[in-house]
Design a protein that fits this description.
heterodimer, A: alpha+beta, Rieske Iron-sulfur Protein, five-stranded antiparallel β-sheet, 11 strands, 46% helix, elongated, B: alpha+beta, OB fold (Dihydrolipoamide Acetyltransferase, E2P), 3 domains, five-stranded mixed barrel, five-stranded mixed β-barrel, 4 helices, binds FE2/S2 (inorganic) cluster
Chain lengths: 356, 250
């Protein structure tokens, strides 16, 4: 996890993941190039570099849709979690495909002339007219710069050193990049292409991604705020986390206090403990994880924490906030005021086996 | 397998993938790959036709004719019918300034042919052998231009080299920055119009005095534009004499 930084801490899953991703990219580019040269063969053939730069551009946009869909899909259905595991490598590959597109554009459209190739493309001396005169090249370029910043800081080293909050906001810029790329295509290629297929595909992408995010978001918002306990002075202000038997062994239920972070209440056999729902790595939803080898395990990249004190087992040093837990009758209650990260808390045990 | 016994039911990257997830991935991944390949294939399938321009880059050729520096360096080639006018360009995105020294001479030029819809353009080899004079004195006879009257035309201003085959497609939004670069570099500008069935007509753009336009005179390159001017014909080439300031966007 975090003791020392290596380029990539490889394991079999990452290798299979990356190999599949590289294969997919080659397949998408290949499909474009092959179909493009079959529909326009011989004297009608597109210039090789133009065919290729289009293939790279289309593939990059497709990949971006896939990358952005993985997050909400994994929230809606856990079976997508394996795709999330190494998503950042996919993001880095996406950057390189987009860079390939940009490099070919600068070289062939901007090169061989009397100006700097990059400036010739980004700042052509032309009158601005609506809509075809919009500087769609600049939209694409800014998006590429965002993708670059994300790819360059995708390593955990940066996550630690930029602080998770800054890192997260930086990586939320991907939605800005997405919007810019849609504008890049709408005011660029689609100004001269006439097939209805393009607006149809692009809208399908935008609407599809939008609804996935909306669905995943709605699910979060519709989680009921948990009621405060009505059990007299002792548990005043505590939160009702539901029936003890409603929590599967090794799993958690997620509690939404009126304010503050969500809390994950885990069950390990007959012991109940509560920790912050937010993973110290990239903020993954711990409550959607499970207890593996005695430790709470994040569903995103598998960071682990001991339920009893919110600390990662040595040699790792991550800590997350813990919460006090009580069982009263058949229900579990949580004190919503968080303990400092890593504070030991005695788990609450089922009736007859002691109460912490 | 001991690891398998500990199957927690959730996916953890460094542990064996739970069987349920494995089954799911075995379906999901191929479906994703197919969908992706079909998507990029479909996008490629519906691209606009880039036209029939051909650039014979591997076939160096030599032609004979009378070189004129105006309105842009060109070669007049006598054939069976009317005189063929062939524009000359350099490699890259430049006009052939060096050709002006041969104004009016009968010459032999060496280079590569670009051709689209029967209209040709020659790209000179970079060496000095590109143009050699066959006569010492300028030809006395000049080709007369026929005045065809005032017209207003709608089309797209393009650089002749790319459109006739150097870039495919050499028109449209994606190509615009390139067209601007070419014209600014001295490649002669053309107006390309299309009739209802998509057939293109080419008009070389020149100034109201019939001389070539300065490389930076034109705006609205590569976008739909409306241009009014006097139509002239010289040999087999149509020319439109325009005031560059009068080009309007549509
Ligand atoms: S977010 Fe990466 S392991 Fe939890």
């Amino acid at each position: 996890m975090s003791v020392n930084y290596r380029w990539v801490q490889w394991n079999r899953h990452k290798r299979v993941y990356d190999a599949t991703a590289v294969g997919a990219i080659a397949l998408f580019i290949g499909a474009f190039v092959i179909v493009g040269s079959v529909v326009y063969p011989g004297e009608r053939a597109l210039s090789g570099p133009i065919l290729l730069l289009r293939a790279f551009g289309v593939t990059a946009l497709l990949l971006l849709h896939i990358v952005l869909a993985i997050g909400p899909l994994a929230r809606l259905d856990r079976r997508f979690l394996p795709l999330l595991y190494n998503r950042r490598h996919l993001g880095v590959m996406l950057f390189f495909v987009a860079l390939g597109h940009a490099a070919l554009v600068f070289l062939f459209y901007g090169g061989f002339g009397n100006r700097n190739p990059i400036m010739a493309v980004l700042a052509p001396d032309r009158a601005l007219s609506w809509p075809s005169g919009l500087p769609y090249e600049k939209f694409g370029f800014v998006a590429l710069m965002i993708l670059f910043a994300m790819a360059a800081t995708s390593h955990d080293f940066w996550l630690k050193n930029l602080t998770p909050r800054v890192w997260k906001s930086l990586h939320m810029l991907v939605y800005v990049a997405y919007a810019l790329l849609i504008a890049h295509v709408v005011f660029g290629a689609m100004q001269s292409e006439r097939s209805v297929l393009y607006p149809v595909l692009l809208s399908a992408g935008v609407i599809g991604l939008g609804s996935l995010h909306l669905l995943a978001g709605l699910r979060e918002v519709s989680r009921p705020r948990n009621a405060e306990a009505q059990l007299g002075v002792e548990l005043a202000g505590w939160i009702d986390a539901g029936r003890t038997d409603a929590i599967e062994d090794g799993r958690a239920t997620v509690v939404c206090p009126g304010s503050g972070e969500r809390i994950a209440v885990f069950r390990d056999g007959d012991a109940f403990s509560a920790v912050s729902n937010v993973c110290a790595h990239q903020g993954g939803p711990l409550g959607e994880g499970a207890i593996v080898d005695g430790c709470i395990t994040c569903p995103w990249h598998g960071y682990q924490y001991r339920a009893a004190d919110g600390q990662s087992p040595p040699p790792y040093t991550e800590k997350i906030p813990t919460y006090e837990v009580r069982i009263a009758g058949e229900r579990v209650y949580v004190n919503p005021s968080a303990n400092a990260p890593g504070t030991p808390v005695e788990p609450a045990r089922l009736e007859g086996k002691g109460d912490g | 397998m001991a690891e398998q016994d500990r199957d927690s039911g959730i996916y953890v990257g460094y542990l064996p993938t739970p069987a349920r997830d494995k089954r799911f991935l075995r379906v999901l991944i191929p479906v994703l790959l197919w969908l992706g390949a079909i998507t990029t294939g479909l996008v490629a399938w519906r691209m606009q036709d880039p036209g029939t321009g051909v650039w014979n880059i591997s076939n160096e050729q030599t032609w004979e004719g009378v070189l004129r520096a105006d309105p842009y360096p060109l070669l007049e080639i006598d054939g069976a019918g009317e005189t063929e006018i062939v524009l000359l360009v350099e490699m890259g995105k430049f006009g052939p300034e060096r050709a002006r020294a041969f104004d009016g001479r009968r010459v032999e030029v060496t280079g590569f042919e670009l051709e689209r819809d029967g209209r040709r353009i020659f790209e000179l080899v970079p060496e000095d052998r590109a143009i050699s004079a066959l006569s010492d004195a300028p030809e006395t006879q000049t080709l007369v231009s026929a005045q065809l009257g005032a017209v207003t035309l709608r089309g797209e201003i393009m650089d002749s080299k790319c459109f006739l085959g150097a870039m495919k497609p050499g028109e449209g939004q994606g190509h615009r920055a390139c067209a601007i670069l070419c014209i600014r570099g001295g490649i002669p500008p053309m107006l390309v119009t299309r009739d209802a069935s998509g057939n293109a007509s080419y008009y070389l753009l020149v100034g109201t005095d019939g001389a070539g336009l300065a490389p930076d005179a034109l705006d609205r390159i590569g976008e739909p534009a409306e241009i009014s001017g006097e139509l002239t014909r010289r040999g087999d080439l149509m020319m439109l004499m325009i005031d560059p300031g009068s080009v309007r966007g549509i």
